[in-house]
């Protein structure tokens, strides 16, 4: 197990914090290369302090917590929470602009870094002792935002859209504008509520939903379901008959009320 760090950063925040920083940098870059853990326009890695203790057995819980705080306070890393469950407090980490500048320049302090990045998947498969792992005690799977979005669309529409070049391009463009996977879910859900069972249902497709001219409007609208949840091609005959009978009875009662002399 080899741990490396940027010497200049270690002078500022300490050896442990600098070593953890290298771990963050590796996994952020790895996730970027594989299109995983993309949120709010950035790629992230996640971990718990307990998992860090397993990665860095020579450091205590308190030392690790202090090192993480130094990295945040010094502006080298940012934290977030993109867990699926509210009770899951696992922190997510990414490099700040300042951190990215140091990490990519700092590769010179670790000549093996590029080789490690290029062969990360093979190394991970061959060794479970490497520190370059996204360890998470809750076994959170890595997610591909593109596949996640299309899967949600197919689930809601009952279709089988594939992740083609044009669809991937639309999704990538919206993600680069700062929209999140949850925003895509909201757009899909909103339009399914509004368009399912209507003539507009045919437009529940990536080219319409994810287009730049529509996306923000769809995201922020309040969806209005079709009247009475009517079937796609009109109401059933029995429903129409019941409605007509109800309308007729109401009209008859009103007529009798205002024309009592005509009632026999």
What this model shows, in words?
- The structure is a single chain.
- The strands form 2 sheets. This protein has a 3-stranded antiparallel sheet. A two-stranded antiparallel sheet has the order 1-2.
- Helix 1 (7-13) packs across helix 2 (15-34), helix 2 (15-34) crosses helix 4 (61-73) and helix 8 (145-157) runs parallel beside helix 10.
- It has 2 domains: 7-126, Orthogonal Bundle (Arc Repressor Mutant, subunit A); 145-229.
- Strand 1 (38-39) and strand 2 (42-43) form a beta hairpin.
- The chain is mainly alpha-helical.
- It is elongated, with a radius of gyration of 28 Å.
- It has helices at residues 7-13, 15-34, 49-55, 61-73, 97-105, 113-118, 120-126, 145-157, 165-176, 181-195, 206-209, 215-220, 237-258, and strands at residues 38-39, 42-43, 45-47, 77-80, 91-95.
What's the domain count? 2
CATH first level of the largest domain: Mainly Alpha
**Percent of residues in beta strands:** 5-15%
User: Strand arrangement, largest sheet?
Assistant: 3-5-4
Output the structural class.
mainly alpha
From the 3D structure, determine the CATH topology of the largest domain.
Answer: Arc Repressor Mutant, subunit A
Radius of gyration: 28 Å
Helical content (DSSP H or I, runs of 4+): 40-55%
Poorly predicted regions are 108-142, 228-241, 259-264
- Output the helix-strand order: HHEEEHHEEHHHHHHHHH
Helices, by number, come to 13
Let me know the CATH homologous superfamily of the largest domain.
Winged helix-like DNA-binding domain superfamily/Winged helix DNA-binding domain
CATH architecture descriptor of the largest domain: Orthogonal Bundle
Mean pLDDT: 76
Number of strands: 5
Outline the biggest β-sheet: 3 strands, antiparallel
């Amino acid at each position: 197990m080899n741990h490396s760090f940027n010497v200049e950063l270690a002078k500022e925040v300490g050896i442990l914090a600098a070593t953890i920083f290298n771990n963050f940098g590796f996994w952020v870059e790895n996730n970027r290369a594989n299109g995983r853990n993309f949120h709010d326009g950035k790629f992230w890695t996640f971990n718990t302090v307990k998992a860090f203790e397993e990665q860095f057995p020579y450091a205590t819980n308190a030392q690790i917590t202090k090192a993480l705080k130094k990295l945040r306070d010094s502006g080298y890393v940012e934290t977030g929470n993109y867990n699926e469950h509210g009770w899951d407090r696992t922190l997510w980490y990414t490099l700040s602009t300042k951190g990215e500048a140091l990490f990519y320049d700092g590769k010179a302090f670790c000549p093996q870094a590029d080789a490690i990045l290029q062969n990360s998947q093979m190394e991970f498969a061959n060794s479970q002792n490497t520190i370059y792992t996204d360890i998470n005690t809750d076994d959170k799977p890595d997610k591909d935002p593109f596949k996640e979005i299309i899967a949600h669309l197919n689930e809601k529409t009952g279709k089988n859209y594939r992740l083609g070049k044009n669809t991937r391009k639309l999704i990538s463009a919206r993600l680069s504008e700062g929209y999140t996977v949850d925003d895509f879910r909201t757009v899909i859900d909103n339009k399914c509520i509004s368009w399912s069972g209507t003539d507009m249902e045919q437009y529940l497709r990536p080219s319409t939903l994810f287009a730049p001219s529509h996306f923000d409007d769809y995201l922020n609208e309040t969806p209005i379901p079709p009247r009475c949840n009517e079937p796609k091609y009109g109401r059933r005959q029995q429903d129409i008959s019941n409605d007509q009978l109800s309308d007729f009875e109401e009209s008859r009662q009103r007529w009798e009320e205002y024309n009592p002399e005509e009632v026999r």
